[in-house]
Amino acid sequence: MQEKVTRSIAYLAELYLDKEDLRPWAIAWSGGKDSTTVLSLVLKMLESLPTDKRTRHIHVVMSDTRVENPEVGAYMHSQVEAFNHYVKPRNLPIEAQIVHRPVEHSYFVLTLGRGYFLPLRSGAGRWCTQRLKISPQDNMLKSIDPSYIIIGTRLSESASREASIRKWSISDRVGKHVSLKNTHTFMPIVDWTIDDVWAYLSQGSLGWTTTNEVRRIYKEATGECGVSNPRGVENIAAKAEACGARFGCWLCPVVANDRSTEEMTKYHAWLEPLTYYRELQAKVYGDFKPIKTKGQSRAHRSQELRKWEAINEQIRLITKCGYNRAGKRMKDGQGTFTVEARRYLFDELMATQKLVNRLRKYEGLADITLIDNEEISLIKKLWADDEVNTPHVVTNAIGRSIDGLSPLVDGKISEKKFAEYIELRKSKEAS
């Protein structure tokens, strides 16, 4: 492993000293194991050079969706602060910064304010990744105009990652950037295995800090020890990661089971209300599918799924207005998420934030913010605009009361409604 470390640093030094393109570099730092390893290698490369050779500036860019798991978010910010605190007095030409989406692209502004549908599992429906994570980072990278973006991509991560690397590769470690035409990517650990990464991190020092925090965050999010069982961690972390984020956003509707937040709840009980809100969100949108419980029989599972399909249908009749924004009439249970439903979820979000901070107080921890005042102000403005300019999205077209929502999200449905759903389902299947 030490040979790979030495070789990777040598490759970085050779590229850094190349006079052909004197533009700055950028590093895409997620805070995860691979990008943190790369940043540490770059730092060691800089420190190995004579002062007069450290002429190329390096920008380290971390993208915060503002809906990160709060423990992961706090870790990201503390790492950036520690890194800058280390490099500044040493006059190293490198600096880290965190970028984030503008308020109008906030997850809560788009869903609770504008009534966007929840991000879907694939394709254009997964609007959150681009708006919350990729665009802020890409906009910063475009302004930097780097000659190279140093990334922590590895061939052994997955078959799809290997295929992507080979698709964009120019040479073993150099690739084309997907969106920046005059920029290349450089992959100093492309040939490293997961064992190599954890072996490097087990050495204890990153330069600006110890490796204790990155190892802790993986252990808490995966339930595994990265150093003693690296392959287990990679497999579990791969399942936990979503949308290009290290461990996913705490309210991500794309993954069926938020493994990382659930694992972290074992260490931080105050995270539990976040899991409740994430589930509630899916229910209020009429998109809920319960996780299969261990040992559940096939018959019981089928009955549970049918029940929630019926409940989801009833919920959508309440929370979808039956029109698109332009005013075109759609089927009942379709269309824009109503202002009433947005208010319902907003109130639940504020209650969740209050409960989280009450639990944190018991542990002697400071308050955190799940939604900030700027978002709240814009959300309320958007509601007011809808009430005046698009009144057809305020409530549903068939007069269903929002008061009927709470029993449904609690899993209660009348035997009559359930029987009607089953009969209609059988009828559709027969035809």
Question: Which labels suit this protein?
Answer:
six-stranded mixed beta sheet; 2 domains; 431 residues; mainly alpha
Description:
With 431 residues, the chain is mainly alpha-helical. It folds into 2 domains: 2-240, HUPs (Rossmann fold, 3-Layer(aba) Sandwich); 268-430, no CATH class. 51% of the residues lie in helices and 6% in strands. The chain contains 16 helices and 6 strands. The chain has helices spanning 2-16, 33-48, 70-87, 107-113, 127-144, 159-168, 194-201, 212-222, 230-240, 259-265, 272-284, 298-319, 339-362, 373-389, 405-409, 415-430; strands at residues 25-28, 58-63, 94-99, 148-150, 174-176, 184-186. A 6-stranded mixed beta sheet has the order 3-2-1-4-6-5, with helices on both faces. Helix 2 links the parallel strand 1 and strand 2. Helix 1 (2-16) packs across helix 2, helix 8 (212-222) packs across helix 9 and helix 11 (272-284) packs antiparallel against helix 13. The longest helix is centred in the C-terminal third of the chain and has 24 residues, at 339-362. The chain is elongated. The N and C termini lie far apart (63 Å). The relative contact order is 0.10.
Summarize the structure.
With 431 residues, this protein is mainly alpha-helical. It has helices at residues 2-16, 33-48, 70-87, 107-113, 127-144, 159-168, 194-201, 212-222, 230-240, 259-265, 272-284, 298-319, 339-362, 373-389, 405-409, 415-430, and strands at 25-28, 58-63, 94-99, 148-150, 174-176, 184-186.
